[in-house]
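[09:14] KT: can someone run the structure on this one? pasting the chain below
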Amino acid sequence: MSEPTSLATLSADLGRVAATAKASAVRVQARSGPSASGIVWRPGLIVTAEEAVESDDHIEVTLPDGTTAAATLAGRDPSTDIAVLRCAGATGATPVAAGAVSVGELGIAVGSGRHGPLAALAMVSTVSGPWQSRRGGRIEQFVGLDMRFDRRLEGAALMAANGSLIGMVAAGPRHTHLVIPTATIERVVPQLETHGRIARGYLGLGLQPVEVPPLAGSTDKRRGVIVVSVDAAGPGHLAGVLQGDIVVAWNSEPVGSVHGVFRRLGSETVGQDVDLGLLRAGQPATARLKIGERPTT
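[09:31] RB: done, structure tokens below
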């Protein structure tokens, strides 16, 4: 059996990974909020957390050499928390994607703050399969982190011990951090660079959760979503959905929450037909509609 790695060796190895990663780490500052970090994805292109530039077009980045430069927003996707910035002064090579990650694996988050590079040791605390964010984004893998919460590290690179990129650090619930995997970034960035956004499915319906009467012969309570508004130019209106209708099924599958509808409206659903099971004045009805693309404004 080989001797265990000493603390000094581990420290030196992590230091080397951080030294390499900081050459592609930038600080992102939008006028309206606190600073975050970003990754030089390739020359002239930076990836950062969408929340860092959520509502501001005045963006300044501090480059790895300490100089500042203006950046413009190429595109954002709130559903995956990925934003892409253009900055002529940003230099770097596309990071090498890490392989499979395991619970207990150590990584190092490398970003940039007001006073220079930032680094934080992280342990992979949770790994599971693909998941969908509350905003409906498809993310290739769920990777949770055990690390001290630091808002400045949103958008930072999470590096594996071998120097490859596990993904981008993002804010999770209750002051936690999680990872947007490199595979997700690789899929989303070209679309944002070209189109500025990720298309989302659109029904043109304003919805709220509501309790509905149980089915005949049952006492079990059910939930649905009531239509509180109808876009006159949207797919729902064209299909005859009315204000006050209650949506209880999507292609015969029960729908019990607004999120249950929203998570079914991924980019791949645009143009697809769907049968909505409705209750209209207490009577069952069906509306068949073609899912549209969510407007940009």
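[09:33] KT: thanks! DSSP finds four helices and 22 strands in the chain.
[09:34] RB: yep, looked fine to me
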